[in-house]
Specification:
The chain is α+β, with helices and mostly antiparallel strands and 879 residues long. The protein has 32 helices and 22 strands.
């Protein structure tokens, strides 16, 4: 097997006279362009007293220039159907735009203006500081990320990597506009930046447009960067953090060469061998063999100068820790002594080939890989290197790498532990002090001015978007009244096959809640004739990935394995092994996942909302079931559910990717004739009725922030209100593109009450009615303020709906659909959802025309019926 990617294009690099380095990767698969501007400045460049400046400046850079107000960047992005964002790490800060090809140069205009003409106004800074404090609290509730950050800081004592990217409260509290402007003027120069352009462009037009927008900006003198003379000592660091949690976590870490050494492929391969994937060494040892762990994975920090390699393990009992540490050490010792086997390296290579193929289905991720690779190594094509299948050399290099960098004497350890009831009281006391301190700071730096009116956005002319032909597709009638849709894409040499069955967890008996989810996991665990380990290896040695849930199975494969994969899919459906050891392990994992779900305010509020909206209707159920039901389930129950629910009668299959349509159709039709096909059509679900009461619900969970949620009953995919609500989704909640000019995000901009807010009036909308859900995280003492502001915004929706806002929303929705065509998985999901709702693809292709016929009055009526805060129930989870 070989990497079948057909691209031969290389990244083109050129440099402007002012020192701006430009990387171009023409990729005309859809009329879309991803643009990123990387600055070689991150948290490691900050001095004492300014910790967090790089990250705070990232927040402020789009909040006004000499010609733009604070909302112009987001308003322009929204008006031109684009997407904007930014990120900061220890080494770099990057700003990014996605635009349809017709508007792509606007991204260059905005980035160039922000490079040299940013204004940092004190009152706007006050508002944004409040939001950053919320972000800091958000990170505090991400316990695993907090553990990694704390351990990283401990390991790198004496090096700038010691300091957290978001900074410290005391530095943020004292940050002034003058200090931030000084930091900006030091680092934001064209000769300290890299521009990356990926998409439907030519090198020549990028040269012309880059010179037009950036060529006049003068190079600047950059600060002298003192080299960090830091040496890792022969010592081991240990960090333990205690929280009110059920699932425990252990992290083992090693200092490794920085990303700029160009050895990332070795780190990635080592992670694949050890902990990534269901046939990795530690997964077999710790998860599959005896259930010591619930999950294992690896990652690296991607730090430039010195990096960290992490092995992360989730488990449930303190007694597991010694077993986990011993297993990790044993596998590393074996790799150091014997090296990896060729069999293992074949698997790692196949998975790397698939990962590389999928990279080409996300333009922004492609731009990130190119930008990071060049900024770190100076090699414009570093991020696009094909994996190596020189197994002899890889084996030698991995063995040498482990010997040198994964030593016992320099292993570092982090633990997440559960606290006792006495410690919980102490946590609460400390948290109250922190709340008071934060509130004192926020009260002292309250924004006094309203949102600024637009200055520049009105001058931007919109362009008609390029029409995008839908990829060739066909629909076939199969045996047993099943339907097949095939859709050919040539973006990558991959194929996605998605199968759905008539029954899901909505149809399972109440006393066997969770049976559909448990069966789905076991169906893809192994087939008859293979052990679970053998089957996992069979899948991953071809770079395949299997996903399953109640009512569906999805298989992703390289094109070269298409015939094999489809045949294997038939075996998975009809001949699962149902291994007893796997049954016991997976049932235990689901019970643990229930604990983990309800340990998380942001995740659990979704389920509480479903329970309130749907009540006893099956839509209100959790696919994981409940502990009582799970504990009573038997392997015989699983076999019985499989025999009932995995019949291919009336099933629906979608195949998307690079293949021959008629050949695949013939293959699947022949296969389907051999599969079990009893007519087990599920009963029609009862009608969903509106909630009887709007009484708020509150659930207690000791966390840094409180989840605040508003929920209500919505409509099905075929309802006449669906399209008006789709427009409201874009205008009010930000839509699929995540617009930061949405009505609700402007509440965040104006008040700083929360870091982010998400939502949609069409959550779970399908064959049956979906739900309205809007949620955010907020300080416990600011819940009522946030409640007032969010409800006020929802009441004001009719004032915000104009023909202009509808036109922009329509354009953004169509642009989001364009992005779907780039991803085989997203396209398969869209096609199967339409098919399950009885809608044709032609219906979807008529979306633009349907949206154009919807009036302002209709959208306002939809807002009154579905987004009126008096018709939404409030749910909180937190202190």
């Amino acid at each position: 097997m070989t990497d079948q990617n057909s691209d031969t294009m290389q990244v083109t690099r050129f440099t402007l006279a002012n020192g701006l380095e430009v990387l171009v990767y023409p990729y005309p698969v859809i009329p879309w362009v991803a643009t990123q501007l990387w600055y070689r400045v991150g948290s490691k460049h900050e001095q004492d007293g300014q910790r967090g400046a790089a990250h705070l400046l990232e927040h402020m850079l789009f909040k006004g220039t000499k010609r733009m107000s604070e909302l112009d960047v987001t308003a322009i992005t929204d008006a031109l159907s684009g997407y904007s964002n930014a990120f900061t790490n220890q080494d770099y800060t990057a700003y990014l735009f996605d635009f349809p090809r017709a508007n792509w140069t606007v991204g260059l205009d905005l980035l160039a203006d922000c490079m040299s003409h940013a204004t940092i106004k004190p009152d706007l800074l006050n508002g944004e500081l409040a939001a950053v404090i919320q972000e800091l609290r958000l990170y505090n509730d991400d316990y695993e990320a907090t553990l990694e950050e704390t351990l990283t800081g401990d390991i790198f004592s004496g090096h700038p990597y010691h300091y957290p990217v978001i900074g410290y409260r005391h530095d943020l509290w004292h940050m002034t506009d003058d200090a931030l402007m000084h930091f900006y003027k030091q680092w934001y120069k064209p000769n300290n930046a890299v521009l990356v352009v990926v998409g439907d462009v030519t090198v020549e037009e990028v040269k012309t447009q880059t010179e037009r927008f950036f060529g006049h900006i003068p190079a600047g003198k950059l600060p002298v960067i003192d080299k960090s003379f830091w040496q890792s000592d022969m010592m081991s660091h240990s960090v333990a953090l205690s929280y009110d949690i059920h699932q425990l976590s252990d992290v083992t870490s090693f200092i490794i060469p920085g990303f700029n050494q160009g050895k990332h492929e070795l780190v990635s391969t080592l992670g694949t061998l050890l902990a990534d994937g269901i046939s990795s060494r530690l997964y077999k040892t710790l998860v599959r063999a005896d259930g010591t762990a619930l999950s294992v994975e690896s990652c690296s920090g991607d730090l430039d100068e010195y990096d960290l390699f992490f092995i992360k393990v989730q488990h449930e009992h303190e007694s597991n820790r010694r077993v986990i540490h011993n297993a990790i050490r044993q596998e590393l010792d074996d790799l150091a002594t014997n090296g990896p086997t060729e069999h293992e390296l074949e698997r790692a290579y196949a998975l790397a080939c698939m990962e590389r193929q999928e990279l080409f289905q996300d333009m922004q991720e492609l731009a990130t890989v190119i930008g990071h690779g060049f900024a770190s190594t100076g090699d414009a094509n570093y991020g696009l290197r094909k994996p190596s299948n020189n197994y002899a050399k890889l084996a030698h290099d991995i063995q040498d790498y482990v010997r040198r960098w994964c030593r016992r004497s320099q292993a570092h350890f982090g633990q997440l532990k559960a606290i006792s009831s006495d410690e919980s009281k102490l946590w609460q006391m400390n948290q109250n002090k922190k709340d008071a301190s934060d509130e004192s700071f926020i009260a002292a730096r309250v924004r006094q001015t309203p949102l600024e009116p637009l200055l520049y956005a009105h001058t931007i002319a919109t362009c008609d978007l390029d029409e995008v032909p839908f990829p060739p597709y066909k629909k076939y009638e199969l045996a047993h009244k099943s339907n097949l849709i095939t859709c050919v894409t040539k973006t990558t040499k991959t194929v996605v096959a998605l199968v759905t069955f008539a029954n899901s967890y909505y149809n399972e008996p109440e006393d066997k809640a969770g049976i559909a989810e448990l069966t789905a996991r076991l169906v893809i665990d192994a087939v008859i004739g293979f052990t679970p380990d053998e089957f996992a290896d069979l899948i991953e040695r071809r770079g395949m990935s299997l996903e399953a849930g109640p009512g569906f199975i999805a298989l992703t494969m390289l094109t070269v394995d298409g015939d094999y994969g489809l045949t294997l899919l038939g075996d998975i459906i009809a001949q699962p092994k149902f291994d007893e050891h796997s049954f016991n392990r997976m049932r235990g994992e689901m019970i643990a996942e229930l604990d983990d779900l309800f340990d998380d305010t942001y995740a659990s509020v979704d389920q509480y909302a479903r329970q309130r909206i749907y009540g006893t209707h099956p839509y209100g159920r959790l696919s994981l079931g409940n502990k009582k039901s799970l504990e009573s389930l038997t392997l015989a129950d699983v076999r019985a559910w499989h025999a009932y629910a995995y019949q291919v009668y009336a099933s629906k299959i979608v195949v998307v990717g690079d293949f021959d349509q008629d050949r695949v159709a013939a293959h699947i039709n022949k296969l389907w004739r051999t599969l079990p096909a009893d007519c087990n059509t599920p009963p029609i679900l009862p009608t969903i009725t509106s909630m009887a009461t709007m009484t708020p619900s509150a659930y207690t969970l000791p966390r840094d922030q409180t989840a605040l949620c508003y929920a209500g009953l919505s409509v099905s995919r075929t309802d006449a209100w669906y399209d008006p609500l789709l427009l409201l989704d874009q205008i009010v909640c930000g839509g699929e593109m995540g617009s930061m000019y949405s009505l609700l995000f402007q509440v965040r901009e104006r008040t700083g009450l929360f870091y982010s807010i998400t939502g949609s009036p069409l959550v779970h909308a399908g064959l049956y009615a979906g739900m309205v859900r809007i949620k955010t995280l907020v300080c416990p003492d600011r819940v009522e303020k946030a409640d007032y502001e969010i409800k006020k915004a929802l009441r004001d929706i009719p004032e915000y709906i104009t023909p202009e806002t509808l036109a922009k929303a329509r354009s953004s929705i169509i642009s989001a659909r364009m992005q779907t065509l780039l991803s085989n998985k997203q396209l398969a999901t869209l096609l199967i959802s339409l098919e399950r709702c009885g809608l044709s693809l032609e219906y979807e292709l008529q979306l633009q025309q349907r949206l154009a016929n919807i009036s302002v009055d209709t959208v306002c009526a939809a807002a009154d019926q579905f987004l009126n805060p008096e018709r939404l129930v409030r749910i909180t989870v937190g202190r």
